[in-house]
């Protein structure tokens, strides 16, 4: 299959490696020519880790979006979720075909809803869109042309809005770890990063600023106090899911299914021990500053849509509310301005019954 991978960060580079190894013809796109230049110079993506060591060679590496999507049977968006609306508009303007599925890897919370809403501002013929609950890799760029892939998900949730079932079928073909679930609330409320990143980002902010992130976020930073806040936030996430008709496992059980918590962990209530012992995440450094995706993405495009859905569902989420308010003070940013709120997701004014009707057949 010819596939466009949109995004050349660590996630996009990892997708190029997996998809080329699986025999697909891959087009790699990024809007920054400077980001692509090291890959173009080599003729591919250098990689090490779970897919071995080598050079994955895409068929095309380009900053031209029209060229990137031309002739492709699927478009895989592997970008921070703060880019989804921008890319949706760009694809609509670039002539993306209505029959070609779009796969958000990841979509996190509300991804498909936001993508469809943004695309519709340009064109009515929205392509089928599927969203993953989380990124299918644990990866970091060790050099501009090289990605270290320390983990590959064993399982992620995938769902689509009504009428986009074809996107789920293609997503499962391309990424066998994808497990279809009932609707985008079941996938979006399984967004582990929203729970995994935000407590540590707030409670570890002084350490981050003092050391420029010179500690391991998931090991040294996973203190008992951070874990207690995380546990309460996770309980809120599961309560909102129940109000929407879904019974979700707790964070540790979800991460165990993904593969970022080890199989041998038996106590899923000991968040600190389970997360800090995970091999894939063990060497991941903390953010180097507050200008990092844990702050820029996981609040405005994680906690904000979560709080929006919680309000519609009638579930109080004080831990999420307080973390969100602290983040706005800490970073000095209004996350609701440009964030994934009700209007961005196209669910402004809906009650729970209407929301459920919006996401289900």
Task: Describe the structure in brief.
The protein is α/β, with parallel strands linked by helices and 361 residues long. 44% of the residues lie in helices and 15% in strands. Helix 4 packs parallel to helix 5, helix 8 (192-203) packs antiparallel against helix 10 and helix 14 (299-313) runs antiparallel to helix 15 (318-331).
Q: For the record, what CATH class of the largest domain applies?
A: Alpha Beta
% residues in beta strands: 5-15%
User: Which fold does the CATH topology of the largest domain refer to?
Assistant: Rossmann fold
* Low-confidence spans: none
Secondary-structure element order, N to C: EHEHEEEHEHEHEEEEHEHHHHHHHHHHH
Shape: globular
CATH superfamily of the largest domain: NAD(P)-binding Rossmann-like Domain
* Widest β-sheet, arrangement of strands: 5-2-1-6-7-8-11-12
Our measurement of the CA-to-CA distance between the termini, rounded to an integer number of angstroms, reads 29 Å
Main sheet attributes: strand count, strand direction, barrel closure: 8 strands, mixed
Number of E strands: 12
Class from helix and strand fractions: alpha/beta
Radius of gyration, in angstroms, nearest whole number: 19 Å
Mean pLDDT: 97
Q: CATH architecture of the largest domain, please?
A: 3-Layer(aba) Sandwich
Our count of helices gives 17
Structurally, the number of domains stands at 2
């Amino acid at each position: 299959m010819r596939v466009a991978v949109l995004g050349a960060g660590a996630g996009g580079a990892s997708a190029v490696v997996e998809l080329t190894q699986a025999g697909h013809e891959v087009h790699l796109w990024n809007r920054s020519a400077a980001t692509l230049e090291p890959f173009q110079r080599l003729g591919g993506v250098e990689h090490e880790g779970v897919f071995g060591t080598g050079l994955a060679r895409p068929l095309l590496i380009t900053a031209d979006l029209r060229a990137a999507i031309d002739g492709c049977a699927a478009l895989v968006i592997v970008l921070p979720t703060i880019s989804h609306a921008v890319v949706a508009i760009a694809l609509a303007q670039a002539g993306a075909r209505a029959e070609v599925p779009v796969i958000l890897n990841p979509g996190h919370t509300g991804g498909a809803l936001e993508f469809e809403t943004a695309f519709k501002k340009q064109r009515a013929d929205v392509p089928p869109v599927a969203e993953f609950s989380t990124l299918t890799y644990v990866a970091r760029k060790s050099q501009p042309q090289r990605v270290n892939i320390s983990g590959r998900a064993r399982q992620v949730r995938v769902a689509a809005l009504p009428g986009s079932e074809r996107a789920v079928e293609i997503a499962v073909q391309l990424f066998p770890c994808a497990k279809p679930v009932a609707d985008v609330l079941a996938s979006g409320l399984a967004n582990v990063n929203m729970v995994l990143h935000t407590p540590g980002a707030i409670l570890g902010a002084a350490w981050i600023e003092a050391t420029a992130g010179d500690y391991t976020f998931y090991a040294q930073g996973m203190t008992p106090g951070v874990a207690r806040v995380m546990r309460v936030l996770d309980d809120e996430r599961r309560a909102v899911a129940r109000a929407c008709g879904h019974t979700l496992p707790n964070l540790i059980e979800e991460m165990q299914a993904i593969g970022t918590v080890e199989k041998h962990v038996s106590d899923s209530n000991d968040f600190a021990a389970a997360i800090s012992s995970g091999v894939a995440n063990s060497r991941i450094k903390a953010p180097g500053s507050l200008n990092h995706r844990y702050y820029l993405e996981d609040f405005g495009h994680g906690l904000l849509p979560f709080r929006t859905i919680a309000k519609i569902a009638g579930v109080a989420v004080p831990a999420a509310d307080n973390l969100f308010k602290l983040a706005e003070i800490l970073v000095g940013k209004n996350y609701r301005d440009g964030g994934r709120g009700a209007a961005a997701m196209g669910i402004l004014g809906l009650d729970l019954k209407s929301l459920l009707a919006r996401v289900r057949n």
